Amino acid sequence: MTSINTNNSAMSALQTLRSINSNLETTQNSVSTGYRVDTASDNAAYWSIATTMRSDNKALSAVSDALGLGAAKVDTAYTAMDSAIDVVDEIKAKLVAATEDGVDKSKVQEEIGQLQEQLMSIAQSASFSGENWVAGADGTMNVVSSFVRDGSGAVSVKMTDYVLDTSSTGNVLFGMNGGSIETSTGILGTADANGDSVYSLDITNFTTGQIQSALSTVESALSAMTSAGAQLGSISTRIDLQEDFVGALSDSIDSGVGRLVDADMEEESSKLSALQTQQQLAIQSLSIANSSSQNILSLFRG
């Protein structure tokens, strides 16, 4: 039945066109943004997960930066400790030379004095970002190592610790006192039973026996410095491994988020072409449906 009041064909064609236009708008948005889930209205669950993971990834990026800063601090401390070990090795060699008969100990002491000043220079220079791990107060130094979200959703930042006071002399070349280097503490400043330390050592008037005692003091210092250097090396390796892990974890999160919200551009492109064709056909169908009512007029023409 043909009616001049109700055009069912036109209404059906219009409904189809509206549906196609809606799908076309969604597809065009996916193509332009690259996301199939761009807003919460697209898929609330996936959008929520993706937003949380992106936030965590930004935190991981900050952790990566902090790890780089921590690595620089550790590398600076290790370089200083390694250089100091070389200098103390030289002092040890001078002491061995001083045990020979006829050696002018005052001349040897002049050389040792220069080496002692070099130790101070190393300790003073081993600072990075305001922290000096080889000339500082006793305590524990921290490096940010990771960002963690547990099963309940609680977040925390984990730290890697480097303890400076694991022994009587600690793991520092010199201690600190009121912001200044304290030359009577630390590995190089702590005195032995005879009152001698690597930094205060003066063999000008030493006997052979006293030089042997000084050698023992220097050897103990070398052992402590080697231990401290080994710890710094271990922390450096751990930080490097953690940097690699954080980088891989960040990439994995990016990939996971992409699987949730990224659009398949090949699929969306094909869908876009199909919808554009359907839109054109729907417009033609609507036009035909609208023209059918005009045909009624021909029935009344003479």
Mind explaining what this structure looks like?
Residues 216-300 form the Flagellin C-terminal domain. Flagellin is the subunit protein which polymerizes to form the filaments of bacterial flagella. With 302 residues, this protein is mostly helical. It has one domain: f41 fragment of flagellin, N-terminal domain. 63% of the residues lie in helices and 10% in strands. It has helices spanning 8-33, 44-98, 105-125, 186-189, 208-261, 265-294, and strands at residues 127-128, 131-132, 140-149, 155-163, 175-177, 180-182. The strands form three sheets. Strands 1-2 form a two-stranded antiparallel sheet. The chain is rod-shaped. The model has no long low-confidence stretch (mean pLDDT 84).
Quick structural gist:
The chain is mostly helical. Helices cover 63% and strands 10% of the residues. Strands 1-2 form a two-stranded antiparallel ribbon. Strands 3-4 form a two-stranded antiparallel sheet.
CATH topology: f41 fragment of flagellin, N-terminal domain
How many helices? 6
Portion in strands: 5-15%
**Number of beta strands:** 6
User: How would you name the CATH homologous superfamily?
Assistant: f41 fragment of flagellin, N-terminal domain
Distance from first to last alpha carbon: 23 Å
Helix content: 55-70%
List segments where confidence is low: pLDDT < 50 over at least 5 consecutive residues: none
Q: Provide the number of structural domains.
A: 1
Give the overall average pLDDT: 84
Topology readout:
Blueprint lengths: L7 H26 L10 H55 L6 H21 L1 E2 L2 E2 L7 E10 L5 E9 L11 E3 L2 E3 L3 H4 L18 H54 L3 H30 L8
Antiparallel strand pairs: 1-2, 3-4, 5-6
Helix pairs in contact: 1-6, 2-3, 2-5
